[in-house]
Amino acid sequence: METVTVQLDARSYDILIGRDCLRDLGHLYAERGLGKTAAIVTNPTVAAHHLKPVRQSLACAGVKVTVITVPDGEQYKTLETAAQIYGDLIAAGLDRQACIIALGGGVVGDMAGFVAATYLRGIDFVQVPTTLEAQVDASVGGKTAVDHALGKNMIGAFHQPKLVLIDTATLETLPKRDIRAGMAEVIKHGIIRDPGLVAFLEDHIEGAATLSLPAGQINWLIARQCRIKADVVAADETEKGLREILNYGHTVGHALEVVTQYAHYKHGEAIGLGMTAAGHIAVQKGMWSQEEFDRQTALIARLGMPECVPDLQVDEVLARMASDKKARGGVIRFVLPERIGKIAPRDDVTRAEIASGIRYIQALG
Ligand SMILES: NC(=O)c1ccc[n+]([C@@H]2O[C@H](COP(=O)([O-])OP(=O)(O)OC[C@H]3O[C@@H](n4cnc5c(N)ncnc54)[C@H](O)[C@@H]3O)[C@@H](O)[C@H]2O)c1
Ligand SMILES: [Zn+2]
């Protein structure tokens, strides 16, 4: 197994990446001295594929397990569902020594993490991410949240897990579209921090997106994403500065998700379009070379992701960006590439430049 440690003093934790390692959870959990009672939070889709080894492994390690199943879908990442989880935890008698184990994608992980951050003022929490999006991004770094009708991730807390266990074999049951969408965040990591990763993707993106690379290479690729995110989080846990670079592509991307009611794109697909809009803006500003922008565009195109919605209203997207939580005092913030591996937050992107970025991605469709 590959190990990446997130260095956060007393709150440091390991991310362990391997193949067929769900069955190791029990002893890894016990080794860390986590509670003798635990609640696995999952959904029916993930449970059907992956609950059994997780549950058995914990039981073999002497952990008393309650399983809490929540409905599948971003529309259930709400305070209402969180309240149901609180109810189940109370009914099962889980105390402050108990631990919550999130088994699923980013939706389950964000919501179970939020519940762990708030139940009894905070209990331990373990992430077992089963989507590419969650393995390379959502499970690392301690951001937890639920959505509000007026905005995504509007209610949340920073709460670091005690352990992240990534079994790359779980990706084999994931729809191919979710793999491709998650791969957009992998491209993002390359553009913001890692020219070597971009070069690797230029050689192997189809193999990566179809999981047809050798298992060792898949594990290595995922570990590399975790290392990039872990380094950024270790330097800036609560997003006072550097961590903002992880939002590359997310200013336009989130707005696209909101104006299409989360129904049109997978998150990573919106981020792919958002990176294209941001890259275009950076080129227009003379900050980034056309040649590197073209390399980014080619990689995204090779994933074969959907393009823009044709009748997107530029004003509506702009209004959404201004009310996003990444905006500061109504000023829309972007992170824009200067070269592959180097990116900078900016608050000087004009309305005309943003409109040009949006029109650019619209024209792709
Ligand atoms: N906390 C963070 O730092 C962070 C970062 C990125 C994204 N997120 C959040 O993550 C969420 C998106 O996560 P996601 O893309 O994983 O979506 P998701 O959790 O909705 O999972 C996508 C679909 O795949 C299913 N699924 C999960 N694992 C599976 C498996 N192994 N086999 C078959 N089906 C499986 C799920 O049930 C779901 O239907 C968003 O809510 C986003 O806000 C959080
Ligand atoms: Zn993202």
What best-fitting shape do the alpha-carbon axes yield?
A: globular
> Can you count the beta strands?
11
Category from helices, strands and their pairing: alpha/beta
Number of helices: 13
* Amount of helix: 40-55%
CATH class of the largest domain: Mainly Alpha
The CATH superfamily of the largest domain appears as Dehydroquinate synthase-like - alpha domain
Mean pLDDT, to the nearest integer, reads 94
User: Remind me, CATH topology of the largest domain?
Assistant: Dehydroquinate synthase-like, alpha domain
Bound molecules: nicotinamide-adenine-dinucleotide, zinc ion
What topology, given as strand order, has the largest sheet? Answer: 1-2-9-6-5-3-4
**Unreliably modeled segments:** none
**Rg computed from alpha carbons, rounded to a whole number of angstroms:** 20 Å
Q: What is the domain tally?
A: 2
Beta-sheet strand percentage?
15-25%
Secondary-structure element pattern, one letter each: EEHEHEHEHEHEEEHHHHHHHEEH
The major beta sheet can be summarized as:
7 strands, mixed
CATH architecture of the largest domain, by name, is Up-down Bundle
Q: Ends: how far apart?
A: 42 Å
Please outline what is shown here.
This protein is of the alpha/beta class and 365 residues long. It has helices spanning 25-31, 44-60, 79-91, 106-118, 132-138, 176-193, 195-209, 215-235, 250-259, 267-284, 290-303, 314-323, 351-364, and strands spanning 2-6, 13-18, 37-42, 64-69, 99-104, 124-129, 143-148, 151-158, 163-167, 334-339, 342-346. The protein is 48% helix and 18% strand.
